[in-house]
Write a structure and sequence with these properties.
The chain has a single domain, classed as Class I glutamine amidotransferase (GATase) domain (Rossmann fold). It has 6 helices and 11 strands. Strand 8, helix 5 and strand 9 form a beta-alpha-beta unit.
Length: about 190
């Protein structure tokens, strides 16, 4: 039986932060399903770092269908959770079904990978208190306000939580997450 991984996303999720883990985990032999507020075609964005800008820029990215809605997710059916960044976490964190899902993974000690603005979701669910996490550097005050210790790294591992700052960290982030994942739930 194929081991399933849940990736949560919404419109304005960062394209690279959705597709890199989706493809990398699929390559490892896991079945990755994408959940969103509704089962529809999602519109992702591309965040880039350009000279002369004080922050990242945003451009339209790829589209991709969500496999199922948050309300239809049985988190017990999944071995791990991936929380990409982008702007999506700003509004996804308010979704009660997503909070239910995230609470399950943290409560069960299952592997969770979060990157960039993804920690906004686990923070809103009250799950970062006492933890160590990376995030997009501008989120350091949010991480601290959630009771966590902010770490500026490409692969911060705190038990089964693996976090990173943004898509340039993908190699270290996914390498560390796959190591944690293989111990908890080897692919079939």
């Amino acid at each position: 039986m194929t081991v399933k991984i849940l990736l949560v996303a919404g419109d304005a999720a960062e394209s690279l932060e959705v597709f890199y883990p989706y493809q990398r985990l699929t390559e490892e032999g896991y079945a990755v399903e994408i959940a969103a507020p509704t089962a529809k075609k999602l519109r992702f964005v591309v965040h880039d770092f350009e000279d002369g800008y004080d922050t990242y820029t945003e451009k339209p990215g790829y589209t991709w269908p969500a496999d199922l809605a948050f309300a239809d997710v049985d988190p017990a059916a999944y071995a791990a959770l991936v929380i990409p960044g982008g702007r999506a976490p700003e509004y996804l964190r308010n979704d009660p079904d997503l909070r239910r899902i995230v609470e399950h993974f943290f409560g069960a000690g299952k592997p969770v990978a979060q990157i960039c603005h993804g920690p906004l979701i686990s923070a809103a669910a009250g799950l970062l208190d006492g933890r160590r996490t990376a995030a997009y550097p501008a989120l350091e005050p949010d991480v601290l306000a959630a009771g966590a210790r902010f770490e500026d790294g490409d692969a911060v591992v705190d038990g089964t939580l693996v976090s990173a700052r943004a898509w340039p960290d993908h190699p270290g982030w996914m390498r560390a997450f796959i190591e944690v994942l293989r111990k908890a739930a080897p692919p079939a």
